[in-house]
Amino acid sequence: MQAKLILSDGTVFVGQSIGAAATNIGEVVFNTSMTGYQEMLTDPSYRGQILTLTYPIIGSYGVNIEDWESNNVQVRGLVVKQLCDRHSNWRANEALDTFLVKHNIPGIAGIDTRMLTRIIRSHGVMMGIISGEDLSVEELQQRLASAPDYGLTDYVREVSAGRVYSWDEQVQEPYDKMVRFTSNPPLKITVVDYGVKRNILRLLASRGCEVRVVPCDATAEEILAGNPDGLAFSPGPGDPATLGYAIDSMQGVVKSGKPILGICLGHQLMAWAFGGKTFKLKFGHRGSNHPVKDLVRDGAIHITAQNHGYAVDAESIKGSGLNVSHINLNDGTVEGMIHEELPIMTMQFHPEASGGPRDTEYMFDEFIRLVDKHRVSR
Q1: 352 is catalytic
Q2: What distance in Å separates the CA atoms of residue 245 and residue 242, rounded to the nearest whole number?
């Protein structure tokens, strides 16, 4: 069966249909990682997007039950150069193609993904429509023309669990061997779920924390209920400028003086909470090879996993009390912030990796030490 991918600039790609015989619309983005496709497909930050993978052969190690980062497949479609028709991995439970069919996700293979990536790099991310159905180019273009722009939809409400729950998954290998910090009684961490990845919860639990998760629209009072020792604001999809309810609750929480960790969208929202702004990147940072320099600790350069389409405006946070702690060495954009007086640390990159390098996992250790220090001092 044929599949079609059509961009909002009129570019048409025709290839082989993989996954479900369905039609979806989303923002077309690319990721430069060589592995980690299952984690990407289930990462809530990809909600509303059609994911292009630049590595040419995808699916060689199949799909397993352990590498889910949320309860659902989040992408609207998958674009690859070549789908591996035989997977080989002792952890695998099924093939990638079967996985996509099961979750009704359309895909396309056999197109020039280098050309597609070049278009996005040159002209910026844009909306697109992907279809494995027998629909004409004209009909698909009409559907695409009537679709709202990616930045106008609140995808956070779609991916947030919408309830309060405790993370009680048993710490398993390799996380049981990574515990570097224990506290008695355990530190209580509340995580605000804008689209939290499971590995964030795993890494907090592996450090001996009691982890409680609250939904994206929780008020400051609801977030602070139970008197947690520290707070974490998760990654998530979409434009932070549209999430006024999240900014309001974050401003209320900041006044508590509790230690705070912000990751990706949580980092961007923290800038807004202090009067800053964000802007849309031309084609975003998505991959597992982004160099980031730590400006305040040791000047080290780390290779990081990233997945974001917006960035904090460094000028907008001047005088706010937030200082830039990390920068991206590819384009100089803000990759982290710390507050001059309050126990607040944020990062644009993903210290939880999954998939990607674990160079910056030390940020969780630093956060836990910060939380413990403030608990002891109170």
Answers
A1: yes
A2: 9
